[in-house]
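Next up, sample data:
>
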Amino acid sequence: MSKTRKLTLWLFSAMVTGELVAALLSLGDKRLNSPVYRGYHVLLMAGAVVLAFMIKSEAVRKIPSQFLREQIWKRVSLLIPVAMFFSFVGTFFNAALIDLRYVKGSYFLSALPFYSIAHILFVVVFFQLSPVDVTMKYPKLISRGRLWVTMLVWPVLSFWMWRKLGISHKPDIWRYMFFAFSLVSMLTVMTSCWVGYIWKPHGFLITLGCFFLLISDYHAGRYSGRSTSQYIKQLMWGLFYVSQLIIMYTPTVGAKSPQPVSEILNSLKGLVAKR
């Protein structure tokens, strides 16, 4: 197994173990506000950034250029780890490890711009990987049909998500920022569906990861500044982190060799079988 697969398994195992230990230590408490616990999240995201750059290096060497123009793969391979870096910065601010007195009621608000930038970079990547014909020398980004469906449905679903967040009583800055976040979050999922359709079956895993990300986005917005069960928060964090581990493998969807995600799943199955 390559170094990237090993690090992916290690980070996933560290996330699961840490959340289980945190759940046991909380002993039914509604919250875990320990700086150690929040710092552990930041360290996991830092590890994810390192992994993303390792995958970039691997993808540039192994992805065959006949799938798309070589420069597109290089661009995609670079944008994904950059997006992961912005997710890391967002996680750092959201962890409340530094005092941000200008933030009223929620540290998530200070992290929102960085998470939004990461989503926008994901959208750019999915546009790059969504040609009409992958064998064309100069492929178009997407077909007119998918583009029109996306443009018509996207604002409707985004507005619906924003309304469901229940922030009508919040200050204007909250409503504007969360509306913009709803737009980029929903567009991320919709454009990932193009990748799932064109690069199936392995592209479907990327789409699944983006749906995990959407669920965690919705929960983060819905309960930002509100109290909720610590166990629900842990579950949403787990979904967010798993989504990052999946999405960072986007540059490998065109590989002819066995897919990294498939290899990881087979390795997990092997470990379970041995036990």
